[in-house]
Amino acid sequence: MKLITAGLVALLLASPAYAAFDYVETFDSGFLPWTFAPNSGIVQAAGGNPGAFYQGTGPFFSGGPQPRTLFGFGDYSLPWHGNYRTDNVATIGVDAIILTSAAPSTGYFLTLFLYSDGGGVGDAQIAYQVGPQLPEVGEGWMSVDFPVPSQSATLPAGWTFQDPTPNNPPPTYDWNVLIENVDMMGFYFFDPANPGTPFQQVGIDNARVATGPVSVESESWSSVKALYR
Q: How would you label 169-189 residue by residue, b for 16+ Cβ within 10 Å and e otherwise?
């Protein structure tokens, strides 16, 4: 885990503005408050974007791979968890790759999701934002940065609530409860509205978070990471 200075940046998804990234997890060293659902993950020392990366061990036949932070790990899960509004979180990004697939890997999308347990039974909240289409097997790494409107008082445009307890009465959805109490975040390698996926091996690298919009010069994440190796 490494802190990144304000001069190292990436282009916001679907936004002409730029943001300074305060934190980047390169997976090169240190404790990892990350896992893959429904299966586990492993850090690979090479093959990332560049260097080390976090690979799901798969196969992921049900729902699709979900790299996510570990729930309930306190300070080990900072800066991914907590009050996004107070922290003024502006952007969350990641680099993603599909390594192998049991069937054609076309037409799938990378999605950011945020989860809060809401503080009580039946209060859990999940909201997600669907990003761009994932690259196919053999097309390499894709970098995506998702805007996170943490100061919005209502569910922002482009975000969708997801029922965290299917087949049970859904909670009263509340963006404020979620954004002020993020207990887990991560990425779906699919659109939740169409979760079927044939992926077997996928990976992520350079998971990152930015607070507050800042206009600075853009830089590729490959060159950013290379400076901190």
A: eebeebbebbbbbbbbbbbbb
- 86 burial class (0-12, 13-18, 19+ CB within 10 angstroms)? exposed
Coil, helix or strand for 225?
helix
Give the residue from 176, 77, 175 showing the smallest Cα distance to 129: 175
Angle value at C-alpha 226, between 23 and 144, nearest 5 degrees: 55
* Residue 23 DSSP one-character state: E
Give me the sheet containing 159-161, strands edge to edge: 34-37, 66-69, 184-188, 109-116, 125-133, 159-161
Q: Quick check: helix, strand or coil at residue 152?
A: coil
pTM for this model (two decimals): 0.82
145, β-bridge pairs:
93
Give the pair of three-digit tokens for residue 19. 């943001």
pLDDT in tens, 136-162: 999 999 999 999 999 999 999 999 999
- Six token digits for residue 191: 């659109």
Residues 93 and 77: their CA atoms lie apart, in Å, by 16
- And the tokens for 184? 């887990």
* Cα angle value 39/144/116 (rounded, 5°): 55
